[in-house]
Design goal:
By secondary structure, the chain is of the alpha+beta class. The protein has four domains: about 45-100 and about 255-305, no CATH class; about 100-250, no CATH class; about 395-500, Phosphorylase Kinase, domain 1 (2-Layer Sandwich); about 510-760, Transferase(Phosphotransferase), domain 1. About 30% of the residues lie in helices and about 20% in strands. It contains 19 helices and 36 strands. Strands 3-4-5-6-16-9 form a six-stranded antiparallel beta sheet, with no helix packed on it. Helix 16 runs antiparallel to helix 17 (about 690-705). The relative contact order is 0.06.
Length: about 750
């Protein structure tokens, strides 16, 4: 009996010791799991309120990185009775990520009016006082809300100022769709990559006079893409000084990893890697912990080994996990050893090995069979999807129409997705030539080494498939040396891809507005380019089998080859006009600064709309100024306004590009300026046709080689074109209507609208 009690006491003691050790081990494991890697420098705060503040950021002197180009200090604002709030510049910070992102709350811009059309005192623009960081192009979008609204965003990109904008107009809420920011009540645009020093504003066309009952204000704001869904309630519910979530990108310094590593200011700590920012995201680099490490890579010893063995699923079965520095491995428990990556008891018979081997082989065979079936089904699904897209994009209709146009058949090709993927190296970013509202253009090299430009659309409009096919037919039949040639298309993707000839010398916009290139663009070259553009547009309007209105004539859509031959490009916004029609009713579309004011008011698109855009292009060639620039004084913001005013006030020579003026061509410059002024008439009926413009430019070009005493008598045919009276006017980007004097610029929107309505 005594023996039993002793044995029982010893058993209880052993159990107690075992339980104690288990408790100690569990506590150690839990403590290890609870280890938090350091975020801030020693003796520095790593938080402000509920927001973690990782180095290189900090809230006090000595706790953040000093960088010549970037400010990493965070102001931890303390308010009585309120939680601490971190601030950067004029904005509150809600999160800072080690991966290079900062979440902030950004103010909106507001433009409100009372019922009589008087602006309210609380109207504000908005600005971003954080030049150290760039706006995340992948996480944000620029939004304008309102039914009488246009908004613009200014910023610095690659050290140069720029402006972008969008507009939204509607008469009531009947066509507004909740959740859709497509231009009715709400418009949105992407933000260029690498932008700093942002300011943006909201404006009104008619002071909200006609929509005041349901929309008294215009709003503009930058917001995180996944945080915004438009609602018609926003037309009245948005308030002044309202903030919206926005994401900034941050990086270290202005140098690449290679340069920084050879200097004393390199910041990446031990067990970390350095990566340069992608092209367009701004200068600098970022740090990241190596695989198997975690923590803050910007601290000297911030990246610490991860204990992968805390994850019990790492080594299943009869295996134990063994942690290593930066890695781990699995080994069999005592009494077992590995056979083909499986732990089996030591001394097992040959039968066990055979069973394990057969099981593994069977498993491999089954996996191979399943993979073969899966890839077969996947390939079949891809083929079916390509067939669906081909039919959806009108492939059968295109083939049928091409069969009726033998000439088109010879020069047009329907490309496959594989051909264009190979040509663009799977649409690699390094092949991007440019991006616009209709999509992205890539440089491609076909199998026969032909260099082409491949346009990949953003959005497909299934209701316009037949019109797209008709446009393809017309474009393939165009044979004009000053229109970019269309080689073919691909219909096997969700949206059609267009393949054009590749033009080597960039856009006319670059040559006119880049000072280093502009000096090489002599007056003779400019006149030649203008004449070629006019000839191409005249051909599209009058000589094609069906009249084509380009609808987006601007210097950015004119390409130049190495001989400075002009090529009209980008027919993404173009429209076909049937022979029995002279105009089309369309949704207003185009580029600010080039938009026809009459088209803007009536939505009636005619070939005279192209004439207006060409007038702006001629003004750019003469002055070297951009069509729209917020860097200029407000009264000179729109080139069309200042150009026509200068002619009226006999100030033409003051605004001409200096190096194109000489004693021998002043009269010619004046004649061409007057021709541009005619093209910029507010009413379309007062503008000449493109055939007349092209003929007049040809005459003026020929005069360069003709003695003064032997002027072509045919020039008299265009006397009316140059001598017709044209009143001085200003043009607003939204309305484009006329006023009598520049002094009335502040009330330009109301007076412009009245002038067009009276003269329509």
């Amino acid at each position: 009996m005594l023996f039993w009690e002793s044995s029982g006491a010893m058993g209880f003691h052993s159990t107690l010791v075992l339980v104690t050790w288990v408790g100690v081990m569990l506590t150690a494991i839990m403590a290890a799991a609870a280890i938090a890697y350091p975020l801030a420098l020693p003796n520095c705060s790593d938080s402000c309120g509920d927001v973690k503040i990782p180095y290189p950021f900090g809230t006090s002197e000595g706790c953040y990185r000093h960088d010549e180009s970037r400010d990493f200090s965070i102001n931890c604002s303390k308010s009585y009775g309120q939680p601490d709030q971190p601030m950067t510049g004029n904005l509150s910070v809600t999160n800072i990520s080690i991966e290079g992102e900062m979440d902030i709350m950004m103010y909106n811009a507001i433009n409100c009016y009372n019922q009589s059309g008087t602006p309210l005192s609380n109207n504000t623009d908005s600005w971003l006082q954080v030049p150290s960081f760039t706006v995340s192009v992948t996480k944000n979008k620029f939004v304008a809300v309102g039914c009488d609204t246009y908004a613009f965003l200014n910023g610095i990109l690659n050290g140069k100022g720029f402006s972008i904008g969008c507009l939204s107009r509607c008469n009531d809420t009947s066509n507004i769709v909740d959740g859709s920011c497509s231009g009715i009540g709400c418009c949105q645009i992407d933000i260029p990559e690498g932008v700093t020093d942002i300011t943006f504003a909201a404006r009104s066309f008619k002071n909200h006079s006609y929509v005041w009952s349901f929309n008294p204000c215009s709003f503009a704001f930058i917001i995180q893409k996944d945080e915004f869904s438009f609602s018609s309630a926003y037309l009245t519910s948005l308030q002044n000084n309202e903030t919206f979530p926005m994401v900034l990108d941050w990086a270290i310094g202005n140098e690449t990893c290679k340069v920084a590593q050879n200097k004393g200011n390199y910041i990446c700590g031990g067990n970390s890697t350095c990566s340069d920012l992608k092209n367009g995201s701004g200068p600098g680099y970022r740090c990241k912990c190596k695989k198997g490490y975690d923590g803050n890579p910007y601290l000297k010893d911030g990246c610490q080994d991860i204990d992968e063995c805390n994850d019990k699923s790492k080594c299943p079965g009869k295996q134990i996990c063994v942690n290593e520095v930066g890695s781990y491995h699995c080994s069999c428990i005592k009494g077992y050893h590995k056979v083909e990556e499986v732990c089996v008891p030591r001394g097992s018979s040959l039968t066990i090995y055979l069973a394990v081997g057969i099981s593994i082989i069977s498993l491999l065979v089954m996996l191979l069979g399943c993979s073969w079936i899966y890839y077969g089904l996947k390939k079949r699904k891809i083929i079916k999807l390509k067939e669906k897209f081909f039919h959806q994009n009108g492939g059968l209709l295109l083939k049928q129409k091409l069969s009726n146009h033998q000439k088109s058949m010879e020069i047009t090709k329907i490309f496959t997705t594989e051909e264009l993927k190979k040509a663009t190296n799977n649409y690699d970013e390094s092949r991007v030539l440019g991006q616009g509202g209709y999509g992205t253009v890539y440089r491609g090299v076909l199998s026969d080494n032909t260099v082409v430009a491949i346009k990949k659309s953003k959005i497909g409009d299934q209701s316009q498939i037949e019109q797209f096919i008709n446009e393809m037919i017309v474009l393939t039949q165009i044979n004009h040396r000053n229109v970019v040639k269309l080689f073919g298309c691909c219909l096997e993707t969700e949206v059609p891809l267009l393949v054009y000839e590749f033009i080597t010398n960039g856009t006319l916009s670059n040559h006119v507005h880049d000072k280093s290139l502009s000096s090489l663009l002599s007056w003779e070259k400019r006149l030649k380019i203008a004449t070629e553009i006019a000839g191409a547009l005249a051909y599209l309007h009058s000589s094609a089998s069906m009249s084509i209105i380009h609808r987006d004539v601007k210097t950015a859509n004119i390409l130049l080859d190495n001989d400075y031959t002009a090529k009209v490009a980008d027919f993404g916004a173009s429209r076909l006009v049937p022979l029995d029609q002279t105009q089309l009713t369309t949704l207003v579309q185009g580029t600010l600064g080039y938009l026809d004011p009459e088209y803007m008011q009536t939505s009636q698109l005619t070939e005279k709309s192209d004439v207006y855009g060409f007038g702006v292009v001629m003004a750019e060639l003469l002055t070297g100024k951009k069509a729209l620039s917020f860097a200029r004084p407000e009264i000179d913001r729109y080139l069309a306004i200042s150009f026509v005013s200068a002619i009226k006030e006999d100030r033409l020579l003051q605004i001409l590009e200096d190096h194109i003026v000489s004693e021998g061509n002043i009269e010619q410059l004046k004649e061409i300026a007057n021709l541009a002024k005619q093209c910029l008439s507010v009413r379309g009926e007062d503008r000449p046709f493109m055939k007349e413009v092209a003929k007049e430019l040809e005459r003026l070009r020929s005069m360069e080689k003709t003695p003064l005493g032997n002027i072509d008598v045919d020039g008299k045919k265009t006397e009316y074109l140059l001598s017709a009276t044209s009143h001085s006017f200003n043009i607003d980007v939204g309305t484009g209507c006329s006023t009598s004097t520049i002094a009335e610029y502040e009330s330009i929107r109301e007076q412009e609208l009245k002038s067009v309505e009276d003269g329509r």
